[in-house]
Design a protein that fits this description.
311 residues; alpha/beta; five-stranded parallel β-sheet; 29% helix
């Protein structure tokens, strides 16, 4: 398969949701996916209606089978090059060597989480080092929780985490918290440790606490850390899609970018999208893409009809 209606780059919830809608619309679609989802370390996902607690890998397996059942195709690999062809089409090269042309392109390549360089932190990621209380807060409810961070956003984040436990401690770098922030934190009985975190303490494959300067260890059962979200948007910048001041591609409510034929969905454009949100964005993008293709089909049909009348 070298010529398709739509290439979907990225096989997470956003890309697969879009692929399902497009396949059911009888479009010739191809999903290109590297097979390394962001939530691979997580044993379960939450907040997805009817699939709460479902293993993320199983969701992808079920989704792929559904898409294949409607004629959708998959390629395992990465897009190594992409270039516009015509007014809204694209030529793509894939890591397995095959060239592909597509009438439209949906990029759903997600983002990557950049964590603070604290020893032990990355090893516990998505286990008991967590980033989203709405995704994982219920599972660690009423436990001894830590939040790492010194920004105003981290303080607000800590106040949200407090919803799930009475025992929450914010670890912030010395001299970074304002008097107002300390007052608000103490008002809700949130502990404050103003010291540099030196490592995450793990014993017998279980998180035991947070160590700060001088070797002091504060017993904790789980740690929340707001990571730095970095979009996997190389393909989009290659196509000169505009980005905002924070580095996120600019798109409308359906995921349409200002580059003709290019749509986006999921975490590559929306860092706060959970699995269910990303799936919804993929569905919305697919409907918009199909409508755009229908408009092109109409133009082509009228053009061909006019040419026949000239013969």
């Amino acid at each position: 398969m070298n010529e398709v209606d739509v290439v979907v780059v990225g096989g997470g919830a956003a890309g697969l949701s879009a692929a399902l809608v497009l396949a059911r619309a009888r479009r010739n679609i191809l999903v290109i996916d590297a097979g390394s989802p962001r939530n691979a370390p997580a044993a379960h996902m939450h907040g997805f209606l009817s699939r709460d607690g479902f293993p993320p890998a199983e969701l992808l397996t079920v989704a792929r089978a559904e898409i294949t059942g409607y004629g959708g195709k998959f390629v395992t690999g990465t897009v190594t090059d992409v270039a516009p062809t015509g007014t809204s089409g694209f030529s793509l090269s894939v890591s397995d060597g095959q060239p592909i042309t597509a009438r439209r392109l949906l990029v759903a390549t997600g983002l990557r989480d950049e964590l603070p360089t604290i020893p032990g932190l990355a090893d516990r990621w998505a286990r008991d080092v967590l980033h989203c209380p709405y995704c994982h807060g219920y599972e660690v409810r009423d436990q001894r929780l830590a939040v790492l961070g010194s920004t105003l956003e981290a303080v607000k984040f800590t106040q949200i985490v407090r919803q799930w436990s009475y025992d929450v401690v914010l670890f912030a770098a010395p001299g970074t918290l304002s008097t107002s922030a300390r007052h608000q934190l103490r008002a809700r009985s949130i502990g404050i440790v103003e010291d540099e975190v030196t490592r995450i303490v793990v014993e017998n494959d279980q998180l035991r606490g947070v160590e700060v300067g001088g070797g002091r260890v504060f017993a904790r059962d789980a740690v929340f850390v707001p990571p730095r979200f970095v979009p996997n948007n190389h393909l989009l910048t290659t196509l000169n899609c505009p980005v905002d001041d924070a580095g996120w591609v600019v798109a409308d409510s359906t995921g349409r970018t200002s580059v003709a034929g290019v749509w986006v969905a999921g975490n590559v454009v929306n860092p706060r999208a959970q699995v269910i949100t990303a799936a919804g964005e993929g569905s919305a993008a697919a409907i918009a893409i199909n409508a755009d293709l229908v408009e092109e089909d109409i133009r082509d049909a009228v053009r061909n009809l006019d040419l026949k009348h000239l013969v």
